[in-house]
Structures are given as C-alpha cells and as structure tokens.
Amino acid sequence: MLAEQYAPVLIVIGLALGVAGLFTLMGMFLGPKLDTETKRMPFESGMPSEGSGFKRYSVRFYLVAMIFLIFDVEVVFLYPWAVQFRELGWFGFSELLVFFVVLALGLAYAWKKGALEWE
Predict the structure, then answer these.
(1) For residue 60, what are the contacts with CB-CB under 8 A and spacing of at least 6?
(2) What kind of fold does domain 2-112 have according to CATH?
(3) Residue 65 to residues 61, 69, 74: CA-CA distances in angstroms?
(4) Average pLDDT, the chain
(5) What percentage of the chain exceeds 90 in pLDDT?
(6) Which residues are bridge partners to 76 per DSSP?
(7) Percent of the chain at pLDDT exceeding 70
(8) Among 69, 93, 94, which residue's Cα sits nearest to residue 82?
C-alpha cells in the first residue's frame, strides 16, 4: 500500500533524471567541439580576469548572506501556517506573533550592531 502511494513520485523523479541525463548526453555528443584559446580564458561578465582568482571577502558579506537566509527560511515556515490558518485559530495567531517578535528582535540586534551597514 505504501509503495502505491509513492509510485507516482518515484516515476516523476525517474523521468526527471532520465530527461536530464538524456539532455546531458545529447549535449556531449551532438554539441560543437571547437576549443580555442579564447574559450579557455577565464572571464567574468564578459571581461577578462585581472589578478588572482583567490581573494579574501569581508566578513560582512557572509553576515548579510546569513541574515538573508534566516529571513528567507522565515517565509518557508509561514507557508504551512497560512495553509492551516483557520484551523489554528487564535492560538496559531498568537504563536505567529511570538515568531515575528523573535525575528524582529534579531533584526533589531543585527541593526544595532551594524551588521546591515555596508562600507
């Protein structure tokens, strides 16, 4: 019985992997193979690279990225709440308010510490 429930999902996953593999093989065998010096040069945004590809990034870059991920994950937690909104009633609403207050306090702390300032 359990296998019957997951069979459509497994079929879709198998089809997706099959199509991706087919397109990859087609690109490998049917695609152009002209390899020139220009194509082997590294570039970024159409401009030739300058200097080493290894440079240190500021910690602020990672801090902003982590703050973005935290608030992005918040949206993932809001979706199930929105789906069950009517069934949760006032208890669910109060829990959401607590969730938002904790996130707002985290944002205020990061803002106070200057984590959102870009220099």
Answers:
(1) 115, 117, 118, 119
(2) Methane Monooxygenase Hydroxylase; Chain G, domain 1 (1.20.58)
(3) 6, 6, 14
(4) 83
(5) 22
(6) none
(7) 90
(8) 93
Q: Which two tokens stand for residue 13?
A: 């996953």
Q: Which residues of 70-109 are buried (b: 16+ CB within 10 A; e: fewer)?
A: eeeeeeeeeeeeeeeeeeeeeeeeeebeeeeeeeeeeeee
The one-character DSSP state at 36 is -
Q: How many of the other CB atoms lie within 10 Å of CB of 29?
A: 8
- pLDDT, tens only, 22-47: 999 999 999 877 878 777 777 667 67
Domains of the chain by residue range: 2-112
The whole-angstrom separation of Cα 81 and Cα 79 is 5
Q: Output the six-digit token pair for 3.
A: 């296998």
Full-prediction pTM beyond 0.85?
A: no
